[in-house]
Design a protein that fits this description.
binds guanosine-5'-diphosphate, Rossmann fold, alpha/beta, globular, single chain, 6-stranded mixed β-sheet, binds magnesium ion, GTPase Der, 5 helices
Length: 163
């Protein structure tokens, strides 16, 4: 079985953009409207030395009430449980968001290995971004830009080190 890596984070942080970049597909729907990924999407990572499977998720929101949103969150939890590693994606432009802390807490509760990655960092100082998100408790984050195709190789190296 190939190891599974789940992309997890709030809506709109760029999970689907990153998924498409790493799989070299357009299988995941990228949208400015949060919450369009209602299902789990699987694809083979086309970077790096090892074969692993990426899962794009609908994101983890802490304030959902039910219906489709709750279904998406439950699917995301299942994807996390099936994963060897979670790439916890956050938005460097927006900075640390209260919901990021909630997701961090949930990931710690689930006791899954986590790699913290700050997306949308194309115009940002990695030191400043790193200091901001250090508070989440997963060490110094890696900064990338999925849209600008920056940091993909380094990210995959770090993922593979942990598989
Ligand atoms: P998801 O909800 O986490 O799957 O996020 P999406 O991949 O759908 O992206 C949400 C929005 O963020 C879209 O408008 C993307 O074009 C944009 N986006 C994704 N990655 C980056 C990035 O690295 N830099 C910037 N500036 N925007 C990005
Ligand atoms: Mg998405």
């Amino acid at each position: 079985m190939k190891p599974i890596v789940a992309l997890v984070g709030r809506p709109n942080v760029g999970k689907s953009t990153l998924f498409n970049r790493l799989t070299r597909t357009r299988d995941a729907l990228v949208s400015d409207t949060p919450g369009v990924t209602r299902d789990r999407i699987y694809g083979a990572c086309d970077y790096g030395q090892r074969d692993f499977i990426l899962v794009d998720t609908g994101g983890l929101e802490s304030d959902v009430e039910g219906g489709l949103e709750l279904l998406a969150v439950e699917q995301t939890r299942q994807a996390i449980q099936d994963a060897e590693l979670v790439v916890f994606l956050v938005d460097g432009r927006l900075g640390l968001h209260p919901e990021d802390a909630g997701i961090a807490e949930e990931l710690r509760r689930m006791q899954v290995p986590v790699l913290l990655v700050v997306n949308k960092s194309e115009d940002l100082d990695p030191g400043v971004v790193g200091a901001d998100f250090y508070a989440l408790g997963f060490g110094t984050p890696l900064t990338i830009s999925a849209a600008a195709n920056q940091g993909m190789g380094r990210m995959v190296d770090l993922v593979e080190e942990r598989l």
